[in-house]
Amino acid sequence: MMKSSFATVVLLGVIALLIFTMDISESRVFVRHGNTQKEPLEIVLEKYICTESRVPIVDLFNSAQAILPNGDTYFFNDVGNVLLWLARQKNQDKIVVWVYAQDTNRYVLAHNAWYSRVEITPMGYGFGAYEYHAYGRADYYFSEVQRFALRGETLLHPMVNALLTRNKL
Amino acid sequence: MSIFLSNEIIVFLLIELILIVLMAISQVNIVSILRHWDFDATTPLQYALEKKNYLVNTILYFTVTCKVILFLFFIQSLNSLAGIVPGAMCSAGVVGANHYGNALLLLKLLLIFGFGLWLIVNKLDLASITFPYLKRKYLLFTLLFIGVLGEFILEILYFSNIPLTVPVFCCTVVFQAPRLPFGYTQTLLVLFFYILFGAILLLNYLKQTMASFTCNLLFLFIAYYAITYFFGLYIYEMPNHKCPYCMLQKEYYYIGYLIWGSLFLGIFFGIMPFLIEQITQKSYVYLLKYASLCLIITALVCSVYVVRYYLMTGVFL
After folding, report:
1. Interatomic CA distance for residues B267 and B293, integer angstroms
2. How many domains does chain B have?
3. A151 touching B (Cβ < 8 Å)
4. Do B208 and A4 touch (CB under 8 A)?
5. How far apart are CA B283 and CA B287, in angstroms?
6. Whole-model pTM?
7. ipTM greater than 0.95
């Protein structure tokens, strides 16, 4: 009887200790609701999670945001990710996509941005967004890079990689 | 290139299939045994059923033992797949390649525990003259068989969904977390690791099976996180390398097999006495000694790495 009472006390003590020191407040953000203004939101690094690759966003460079018509905002750590994600969505025309421009360090509308294909990006797709046309580097339109992403013609493809880095494509 | 062309996967799935066929044959016989079993009867049917019982036991003993060994082969296969799956540098990338990987691994671990329980109940049943646990033993096996079928479906789904063109993540990315599980800090995790370890040793010494069972289940999760997020850093001697799988590789002298093996064995021996008591209504506390021994090995090996690192460098990571 003594033993089992003592065991119960030990067990309850351990469980209480585990529960009281637990902190289950929100630590990861996958989506933010209510962004009806459809403006880019401030990303808290290492807290916001990329919707496509499911890893924390650790740098604003190459990040992107997609805002659905109902104001739900999704975050991405690589421009390539948002392109692939977007292709699977219904009503693509009604989704507002923002990409982080490397030349002006701010979010610009994805459809208005210029794109490069040879950047070093978190997922290795190589797409970098620019607000202004950088001749010889950021020469591609949104629709073009989206097509490249869907075809798999990114830096991840060994042949495309070789041609792009030697400036033969 | 398909993942199903990999030698390890072909062998693994083929053995799994053979074992499932053997288990299915046993299951058919089990149904007839469960329906007609009457130990007090002296009919030819009962005589035939008893002979059938021995046959089924032999088949199951073989298949269950194979399943336990196959688990190790599965882990080894994942390691070898890391060379094929782009981006993966150890099993972490391969397991995390799709949504099925972690669920499959957890199911496999639970089934191993279930098979271990079945082997012990089977041993107790055969040791008695009247087969007192026969029905419970076979009901337990039926549950395990359903689990094995689910596991096989999950394996097919898992292997067929491993991408070979899109890169997966290496372990550093997979276990990169803004905050540790349940909001615990590294210090708290290590503290809980040792508190729970001490509590289990105490409860095992007092032979309190239910309390030990609960503490062991808690320890399984706390130890997993503590090893991944704290002790692993000292094994790899890198502050950012958080991975439960890399320590299984030869670069770390396969120490992961000792750490995880002793942890899982310790947990297994720790939870079994309570479950066996529930099934057989008999005390089976001597396993608690083995539980303590295995967990002491786990804690010792983990602690040695931390102490060694501190002695060598004079700092903690």
Report:
1. 11
2. 2
3. no
4. yes
5. 10
6. 0.74
7. no
